[in-house]
Amino acid sequence: MKDKFTKLAEAAKILVKQPSLINLMLNSNENFKTKFQAKYPNISALNQLTINDLCDEVPQIPVTTFFLDGGSMLTDLRLLMGLASRKDVNSYFEIGTWRGESVFNVGKILEDCTTMNLSKKDIVSLGLNAGYAEQHGILSRKNPAIKHIEANTKTFDFSKLGRTFDLIFIDGDHSYEMVKNDTQKVFASLVQEKSIVVWHDYAYSPRKIRYEVFMGILDALPQNLHKKLYHIKNTMCAVYFPFEISSEKFAEFFLPETVFDVEISEKEFRN
């Protein structure tokens, strides 16, 4: 008992010196997991699909990536490229450009690609590093066919785009509030009957669910659409798939059923 009181006293001293640490505690995955389980006691995880389950054919096209912080896994990019290759997918929209790896790879398959992100000025105004702001779109802008929109999804009226998209990738601010905001707006204005929607960072890794994002997705959608949500194996992605499909229950420690062979080459990149 003494050790517990000692730890509490030490923790209190740290919080007095750094009150911002309280936010880390409140925003921890375990805290969100507790909130999630209280609201959705009958849901532990989304059912699983494989990349091949969703795709007519996964194209054997090299995946371009920087292998730097904040990027997608190779399998995440492979998923998007596979979905982009479906016969019923002809257009792509994403929220959250970052360096542009996702839309750049999809742009190898589809001509109609649009990406939306805060402007560099807005990024810096949030107190973020100017070097971080400068990296946005450095790859995607190499493809002049890709349309870049600078806007804040919190205030942007998506109906002004005047159209829907076949494949949508939500990879912006991953806070609960913004995942919910982006999801609601996408489904209200950009989704049609056969649209497929993918969320990045539904999981921290292919086996560890990110409950803040998961709750944002579920709370944004009517309950009748929850049955069309799936976790894609070997990725950090969740997907809304409007078609009938068989799936399997999520198992955190499932035995691997797939192994990937990856060949890597590198070349100089200039902004």
From TrEMBL:
What lineage does the source organism belong to? Answer: Bacteria, Pseudomonadati, Bacteroidota, Flavobacteriia, Flavobacteriales
Q: Indicate yes or no for the key word Transferase.
A: yes
- Return the SUPFAM superfamilies for the record: S-adenosyl-L-methionine-dependent methyltransferases
What InterPro entries does the annotation carry? SAM-dependent_MTases_sf
Question: Does the keyword section mention DNA repair?
Answer: no
A single Gene Ontology MF term assigned here is: methyltransferase activity
Swiss-Prot/TrEMBL keywords: Methyltransferase, Transferase
Q: What is this protein called?
A: Class I SAM-dependent methyltransferase
